[in-house]
């Protein structure tokens, strides 16, 4: 297989980066505005160059100078304005970062693009912002073809029910039709709590109802692990939060992955990332489509 390069916007701790690297991609640059989080990206993937830049103001020329031209651009912009943490506000100022990243594609002209965000982007009043994003993508329809859908991480070898929204794009001159990796429904059956965390008799799952009232549900060994978020929402029988190394395992991170000592920061970094097996499946699929097209 041809060695391919990728650039990632709003890389965070690096779940997407790691998934692409596991599939043989070379990271030409990982960009984020948060220097503290970038430091952990660097510690866990020292061969991936990191750049602390504001994606709302950085010039495209600067990105090209630092990272060069790449086969793929991965966009994993912050979700706070789109998720419950941002009260589902279509006009939250933090949402503008995603729109500017899309606009930069016209000048970067990668062969392929993968955009990711929370599944809530297509739900309720956030659907307004979803159509704003679609309008930005349609502005690029002379250069790119695209397709989007919500995928469940459980179907891509990840032991938790975690849905994310993805959009896949290819340059029109490559004549590639976007498609999606086949879900592995059979493997998902092996990801019940008794299979991945057998030492717990049960877990407690905290969530909020429509009235913002916090409720708790008991998860038994035969249940699937629910969506794990930036906020600790699963507790073990003694009342403590699910340990960070076990939460990391549910995102597909290896035992050697380094975490901050600050539990709140570690939870935020992991909870915001794309599950590694899901990123790896998409990286493999995009690589295959590019190879088949001789691109």
Secondary structure elements and pairings:
Blueprint (H helix, E strand, L loop, with lengths): L4 E5 L5 H8 L3 E7 L2 H10 L5 E3 L7 H8 L4 E4 L20 H13 L3 E7 L8 H12 L5 E9 L10 E9 L13 H4 L4 H4 L6 E6 L5 E6 L14 E2 L8 H6 L13 H9 L4 H17 L3
Parallel strand pairs: 1-2, 1-4, 2-3, 4-5
Antiparallel strand pairs: 5-7, 6-7, 8-9, 8-10
Helix pairs in contact: 1-10, 4-5
3D architecture notes:
This protein is of the alpha/beta class and 295 residues long. It is 31% helix and 20% strand. The chain contains ten helices and ten strands. It has helices spanning 15-22, 35-44, 60-67, 96-108, 127-138, 185-188, 193-196, 244-249, 263-271, 276-292, and strands at residues 5-9, 26-32, 50-52, 72-75, 112-118, 144-152, 163-171, 203-208, 214-219, 234-235. The strands form two sheets. A seven-stranded mixed β-sheet has the order 3-2-1-4-5-7-6, with helices on both faces. Helix 1 (15-22) links the parallel strand 1 and strand 2 (26-32). The longest helix is centred in the last third of the chain and has 17 residues, at 276-292. The model has no long low-confidence stretch (mean pLDDT 92).
Which range does the strand content fall in?
15-25%
If helices are DSSP runs of H or I spanning 4 or more residues, what is the number of helices?
Answer: 10
- What would you call the structural class? alpha/beta
End-to-end distance: 12 Å
- How would a crystallographer describe the biggest sheet? 7 strands, mixed
What is the strand tally? 10
Helix proportion of residues, in percent?
Answer: 25-40%
Instruction: Name the average pLDDT.
Output: 92
Shape: globular
Q: What is the CA-atom radius of gyration, in angstroms? A: 19 Å
What sequence of helices (H) and strands (E) makes up the elements?
Answer: EHEHEHEHEHEEHHEEEHHH
Strand line-up of the largest beta sheet: 3-2-1-4-5-7-6
Residue windows where pLDDT falls under 50 for at least 5 positions: none
